[in-house]
Specification:
binds magnesium ion; binds adenosine-5'-diphosphate; 27% strand; 18 strands; 5-stranded parallel β-sheet
C-alpha cells in the first residue's frame, strides 16, 4: 500500500491529470506531473511539473526517483515510457492494457477475441486493403485513424470506396479502421475501478450526447431500461477482467438494433463522461484512480442525486468572457474550469454539473446553464 504522504506521478498535464492531482492532494499525497507544455492544467495544481517529453530518459529517471507510483491521464503515452517506469515504481494502468487501447485495431481484435459485440469493422492499412474493407463493411461507414484520434478528430463518414480511399490519403496513409456506421438509439458509458485484487466498483451508467464528435452532455441515471443499465455495467466489468486491468477504465457503448449494446471504445483512464462523479457520487473517478494506484480499498460509487454534466468548449468565449454568474445562478449548478489560457473552438475548457431531483430536470438545467454562458 502507498499511503498518504507519498508522492504520485502522472504522465500528462491535461484536465484529467489536473482533477487527479487535486483529488490526490486532498487525500494528502504529493504530485509530480510529467508534461512537455509548461504551466499545464495539471502542472498548475501539482507540487511539481517536470517539463519534458514523455519519453525523455532523464525526465523518466527523475519521475521514478521522486515518485512511489505513477499513473497516466491519456492513452497515447509511449509504451516504452511505461515499461521503463514499471521496472522502478508501481505503475497503473498496466502497460499491456494501454498498448491494446491506444490502437483501435488491437482494441477491436481484443474485444472480438473475447466475444464482446462491436460494430462490424475492418483494417485499412493501404489503398489495396480499402477495397476489401469497403466490400466487407459497405455503406454507411466511418473511416477512423487507428491511433491518436479523439473528440471526433481523425475520423470521417464515408459512403463510397472512392471516398474511403480519398479519406485514407488525407490521413497520410496511416493505419485506419473502417467501421459500419450504426443507427444509434443512444450512447452510454460505464466508468469503473478495478483493484490489484480484481475487486471492481462500477459507477452508474451515463447517457451521453455528442455534438460534432465531441461529448456535449452526460446524464445519470441513464434514461434506458433497468435491464440495459444492468447489462452495460456487467459488460464493462467483464471487459476490465478480461484485460487484467488495474485502475480506472471507461467503456463507451452504442445502443442500436433495438436495444443491443455494442462496445465503441475503451479509455484506460478516467473519462469525460465520468466527470459527474466529482459532484454526484460518494467517491469520484479520480479518487478511485488514487485508490487503485495506491492499493487502497475501492471507494463507493454510489449516486447521491441525479446529475447532468455539460462540457464548456472554447465556443463559449465567442461573445467574450462567458457569463459564469448567469450559469451559477441556476439551482444545483457547479463550475469546473481547467486553467487553459486560450479558448479555441472545440477545446475543452471546463464543465458544468447540475444536481437535481430527476435526470430530466438535471439535463434541462445543465443545458440552460450552458446556453446562459454565451447567450
Ligand atoms: P473519439 O475517440 O473521437 O471519441 P469515437 O470512436 O468514440 O472516437 O467516435 C466519436 C463519436 O462518433 C461517437 O461517440 C459517436 O457519436 C460517433 N460514432 C463513432 N463511431 C460510430 C459508428 N460506428 N456508428 C455510429 N456513430 C459512430
Ligand atoms: Mg469516443
Amino acid at each position: 500500500m502507498i499511503l498518504p504522504g507519498a508522492t504520485l506521478g502522472v504522465l500528462g498535464g491535461g484536465q484529467l491529470g489536473r482533477m487527479f492531482a487535486l483529488r490526490a492532494r486532498v487525500m494528502g499525497y504529493r504530485i509530480v506531473v510529467l508534461e512537455p507544455e509548461p504551466n499545464s492544467p495539471a502542472g498548475q495544481v501539482a507540487d511539481e511539473q517536470i517539463t519534458a517529453a514523455y519519453d525523455d530518459p532523464t525526465a523518466l529517471e527523475q519521475l521514478a526517483h521522486r515518485c512511489d507510483a505513477v499513473t497516466t491521464e491519456f492513452e497515447n503515452v509511449p509504451a516504452g515510457a511505461l515499461a521503463k517506469l514499471a521496472g522502478r515504481v508501481v505503475v497503473a494502468p498496466p502497460r499491456e492494457a494501454v498498448a491494446i487501447t491506444q490502437d483501435r485495431l488491437s482494441e477491436k481484435d481484443f474485444l472480438r477475441a473475447h466475444n464482446f459485440l462491436v460494430p462490424p469493422s475492418a483494417a485499412v492499412r493501404s489503398a489495396a486493403e480499402a477495397e476489401a474493407a469497403f466490400g466487407a463493411i459497405g455503406a454507411p461507414a466511418i473511416l477512423k485513424t487507428a491511433r491518436l484520434g479523439y473528440d471526433g478528430k481523425g475520423q470521417v463518414p464515408v459512403s463510397t470506396l472512392a471516398a474511403t480511399v480519398a479519406a485514407l490519403e488525407r490521413f497520410g496513409g496511416v493505419s485506419c479502421i473502417l467501421e459500419r456506421r450504426l443507427n444509434l438509439e443512444s450512447e452510454v458509458s460505464v466508468v469503473l475501478a478495478r483493484g490489484t485484487d480484481g475487486a471492481i466498483e462500477t459507477f452508474p451508467v451515463s447517457e451521453n450526447v455528442h455534438r460534432h464528435g465531441i461529448l456535449h452532455t452526460s446524464t445519470v441515471p441513464a434514461r434506458i431500461g433497468p435491464e440495459l443499465r444492468h447489462n452495460a455495467g456487467a459488460l464493462a466489468a467483464h471487459i476490465a477482467t478480461a484485460l487484467g486491468y488495474v485502475g480506472v477504465l471507461a467503456v463507451e457503448m452504442f445502443v442500436a438494433d433495438q436495444g443491443r449494446l455494442y462496445v465503441n471504445e475503451l479509455a484506460p483512464r478516467p473519462h469525460n463522461s465520468g466527470h459527474y462523479t466529482l459532484d454526484a457520487c460518494t467517491a469520484d473517478q479520480f479518487e478511485q484512480q488514487v485508490r487503485t494506484l495506491c492499493g487502497l480499498p475501492l471507494g463507493s460509487p454510489r449516486l447521491l442525486a441525479p446529475c447532468s454534466m455539460v462540457n464548456v468548449l472554447g465556443e463559449s468565449w465567442a461573445n467574450g468572457t462567458p457569463h459564469w454568474e448567469r450559469a451559477l445562478a441556476l439551482p444545483g449548478v457547479r463550475l469546473h474550469l481547467y486553467g487553459k489560457a486560450v479558448p479555441r473552438p472545440g477545446r475543452k475548457m471546463g464543465h458544468l454539473t447540475c444536481l437535481a431531483s430527476t435526470a430530466d430536470e438535471a439535463l434541462d438545467i445543465a443545458e440552460r446553464a450552458h446556453a446562459a454562458l454565451s447567450g
